[in-house]
Amino acid sequence: MELFTHAHEQRMKSEAPLAARMRPRTLDEYIGQEHILGPGKLLRRAIEADRMFPSKLLWGPPGTGKTTLAMVVANTTKSHFETLSAVLAGKAELREVIDKALERRRLYNLRTVLFVKDVLETLNWA
Q1: DSSP state of 83
Q2: Cα-based angle 35, 119, 34 (whole degrees, multiple of 5)
Q3: Which of 87, 78, 94, 93 is nearest to 121 (CA)?
Q4: Would you say 25 and 75 are in contact if contact means Cβ atoms under 8 Å apart?
Q5: Which one, of 104, 99, 97, 33, lies nearest residue 65 by Cα?
Q6: Which of 9, 53, 58, 114 is most buried (CB neighbours < 10 A)?
Q7: What are phi and psi of 83, to 5 degrees?
Q8: For range 108-125, the mean pLDDT
Q9: Cβ atoms within 10 Å, residue 117
Q10: Residue-wise burial string across 24-59, b where 16 or more C-beta atoms lie within 10 A, e elsewhere
Q11: How far apart (Å, rounded) are the C-alpha atoms in residues 46 and 31?
Q12: pLDDT given at position 14
């Protein structure tokens, strides 16, 4: 990461809205879903052991913590986090995210967690 990029990211973090700054960043800060994320549960063990499944489907109404959980997984597994909207993003945006993810993996051995929002809403239109 370049010096100016790092400084910019740090400045953006400090200027982020309160809700973004208060968002849980670790499994211990994440509240709810104890049946799958509680101590000793399968998903929590997989996250902590960095043995996640290649893809996951998080389903639920808005505001239930799907994006937050994806961010927690990225933080816990030391992965880069990207998000796209299935409704708004096109092939070009997806290709760009994939290319950057491949480059990060190749140069820094850093994995990427890609969270695609609104997938089920998109599929309902088909």
Answers
A1: E
A2: 10
A3: 87
A4: yes
A5: 33
A6: 114
A7: -135, 145
A8: 79
A9: 19
A10: beebeebeeeeeebeeeeebbeebeeeebeeeeeee
A11: 18
A12: 80
What is the Cα–Cα distance from 21 to 10, expressed in whole angstroms? 12
Token pair belonging to 110: 């850093």
Instruction: Give the type of residue at 20.
Output: A
Q: How many CB atoms lie within 10 A of CB 87?
A: 12
Taken in order of first residue, the domains within the chain and their CATH numbers are 1-78 (3.40.50.300), 79-126 (no CATH)
- Which of residues 62 and 91 earns the better pLDDT score? 91
pTM across the whole model: 0.79
Which residue from 117, 1, 13 is spatially nearest to 57, judged by alpha carbons?
117
Distances (CA, A) of 71 to 42, 92, 125: 18, 23, 27
- Cα separation, 121 vs 104, in Å, equals 30
Task: Please name the residue that has the structure tokens 């100016």.
Answer: 4
- Distance between CA atoms of residues 104 and 117, nearest Å: 22
Place of tokens 């290649």: 54
